[in-house]
Design brief:
By secondary structure, this protein is α/β, with parallel strands linked by helices. It is built from 17 helices and 21 strands. It has 3 domains: 73 residues, EF-hand (Recoverin, domain 1); 235 residues, Phosphatidylinositol (PI) phosphodiesterase (TIM Barrel), CATH 3.20.20.190; 129 residues, Sandwich (Immunoglobulin-like), CATH 2.60.40.150. The chain is 32% helix and 22% strand. It is elongated and about 105 Å long.
């Protein structure tokens, strides 16, 4: 019976007694690998030795190598590799020079031979290439969507309360999570602005969160806005400022961003495109018109009333102050590119209302779910021209997230997430925005932007299958390099299995699971699964590796999520990530994708 990992004292205490540092531990691990086995101590008395199995190419890989080398040759030339890429991997644009470059990189990495020494691959080299995710990854890494459509035609990578380092009630506010979000490709940053005497602070209002200064957040956004993507950054402001501080905020924004700041000369009737807004920053918030309207009305009433000389002098000064304030607030309003605000009537009326100016509407996840039940088509229609932002409900005090697919199904561009945590919902968000080179903008499928006569109904259930995704999982490797040999189990090698999910419209959702491979750091499953898809444009493929534990919760071995429309067919190396979405250095799966 396999023992669960409850203690590693048998190994670590022995190492400590010998005075071994981290360097010696690495040397010991390296020696163990070279000897071809792992030793596990049980109760400090028994020594269990497990042989390390050599990682060998699956039979399908051997067959493909033989098919494209022809005549029983043991080496694949550049031209043969080009044909393999074009025919088997469906990369028809592969040039001979591309194939030669792949060969040079593989030979240099494996044999440390200069690029002039060898121009072919043997079967081990070929297998190494297939397992290299930087050379043979599952999706394209370049921007390839049409970036000239209006902003409303894209899903946009959106953060919620972007300044929080942890929970929604008592964590610190900082520019650090904003920087991390921008480095990871997030394009929409949310800041909550609150007054503190003459200062502007960013914090989660009416909680115990500690504030960070507004100018510090702006400076960080300017510095990191385009480190991962050249496409526009949108700052959504939840504004609780006085008119005086709004004017001050406008000065801070213009002085910080200077020419990077984009704002139109008049209200927009159509949003500009991401391509036209490269390296620009935009502001989205509620215009401060209500205050100005009230003050203007009060001023006009005062003008009609009789005044003595002292009152007139005081009134003149008030008028000057008001005009100055009005100019400042008008300057603040002028900077707002994407106008937000609550509808004057009901949400249902707002969705159906047709106006010349485009705008942004915000709904909580609960509001969206409720409206989607009865007005799904209206939501889809609204998001064809306007922007819909969805945010987590207020009870998510631990900074958890909701399932994002309901927002995407209805065309919501800004599905706002707490980026500081982790979990399955956030993995889905990561997966969606791995599309289009990870630039933070993913063009919506045609079904969400076409004419009203062909409008997509998210509630439709009897949709025909458009295509079937066939997924074959051959094997996994890399855990022995990224983890200590007792990480998963103190007494034996791990027992890995893989779970594969389709996440999308309800009709397409599915779950499959491989068999458990016992006591093997390089598990070979060699299993194939089929997933019929009615709306493949909105489907995500989620993959999770677990390590079976008979007495405790199964251990986590890695995960990834990939957008189905972006999958490259053929053999692919699929890198896995940790729970927070950080890519492991060596852990990956060899898989094959096919659409039929």
């Amino acid at each position: 019976m396999k023992k669960s990992k409850k203690s590693q004292k048998g190994v670590t205490s022995k190492d400590k007694n010998k005075g071994m540092g981290k360097e010696k531990e690495r040397e010991k691990k390296s020696s163990s690998l070279e000897s071809g086995s792992y030793n596990y101590k049980m109760f400090s008395f028994f020594n269990r030795k497990f042989k390390i199995n050599e990682v060998e190419p699956p039979s399908d890989v051997n067959k493909a190598f033989s098919l494209f080398t022809e005549d029983g040759s043991t080496h694949m030339t550049a031209e043969q590799l080009r044909r393999f890429m074009a025919v088997h991997q469906c990369e028809v644009s592969t040039r001979l020079e591309d194939a030669q470059n792949i060969i040079e990189q593989v030979v240099n990495r494996r044999h440390h031979i200069t690029k002039f020494a060898r121009h072919t691959l043997n079967i081990e080299d070929f297998f190494y290439f297939l397992l290299s995710d930087d050379l043979n990854g599952p999706i394209r890494t370049q921007v390839h969507h049409d970036m000239s459509a209006p902003l409303s035609h894209y899903f946009i990578y959106t953060g919620h309360n972007s300044y929080l380092t942890g929970n929604q009630l008592s964590s610190d506010c900082s520019e650090v999570p904003i920087i991390k979000a921008l480095q990871n490709g997030v394009r929409v940053i949310e800041l909550d602005l609150w007054p503190s005497k003459d200062e502007i602070l960013v914090l989660h209002g009416r909680t115990l969160t500690t504030p960070v200064s507004f100018i510090q957040c702006l400076t960080s956004i300017k510095e990191y806005a385009f480190v991962s993507s050249p496409y526009p950054v949108i700052i959504t402001l939840e504004d609780h400022l006085t008119p005086e501080l709004q004017a001050k905020a406008a000065d801070m924004i213009t002085q910080t961003f200077e020419t990077m700041l984009y704002y139109p000369e008049s209200d927009l009737t159509e949003f500009p495109s991401p391509e036209s807004l490269k390296y620009r920053i935009m502001i989205s918030t509620k215009p401060p018109k209500e205050y100005l309207e009230v003050r203007s009305k009060d001023a006009s009433e005062d003008e009609s009333s009789p005044k003595d000389d002292s009152d007139a002098s005081e009134s003149d000064q008030e008028d000057e102050d008001f005009k100055s304030l009005q100019a400042g607030v008008s300057g603040y309003k002028r900077l707002i590119t994407i106008h937000a605000g609550k509808p004057k009537g009901s949400l249902k009326t707002a969705l159906k209302e047709v106006t010349d100016q485009v705008r942004r509407l915000s709904l909580s996840e609960h509001q969206l779910e409720k409206l989607a039940g009865s007005h799904g088509l209206d939501i889809v229609r609204f998001t064809q021209r306007n922007i819909l932002r969805v945010y987590p409900k207020g009870t998510r005090v631990t900074s958890s997230n909701y399932k994002p697919t309901i927002g995407w199904m209805h065309g919501a561009q800004m599905v706002a997430f707490n980026m500081q945590g982790y979990g399955k919902s956030l993995w889905l968000m990561h997966g969606m925005f791995r599309a289009n080179g990870g630039c933070g903008y993913v063009i919506k499928p045609d079904i969400l932007t076409r004419s009203a006569d062909e409008l997509f109904d998210p509630k439709a259930t009897l949709l025909p299958v458009q295509k079937t995704l066939k997924v074959k999982i051959y094997m996994g490797d890399g855990w022995r390099l990224d983890f200590k040999h007792t990480h998963f189990d103190a007494y034996s090698p791990p027992d890995f299995y893989t779970k594969i999910f389709i996440v999308g419209v309800p009709a397409d959702e599915a779950k499959k699971k491989t068999k458990i491979i016992e006591d093997d750091w390089c598990p070979v499953w060699d299993e194939e699964f089929s997933f019929p898809l009615t709306v493949p444009e909105l489907a995500l493929l989620r993959i999770e590796v677990r390590e079976y534990d008979i007495s405790e919760k199964d251990d986590f071995g890695g995960q990834t999520c990939l957008p189905v429309p972006e999958l490259r067919t053929g053999f692919r190396s699929v890198p896995l990530h940790d729970k927070k979405g950080v890519k492991h250095k060596n852990v990956r799966l060899l898989m094959r994708f096919e659409f039929v």
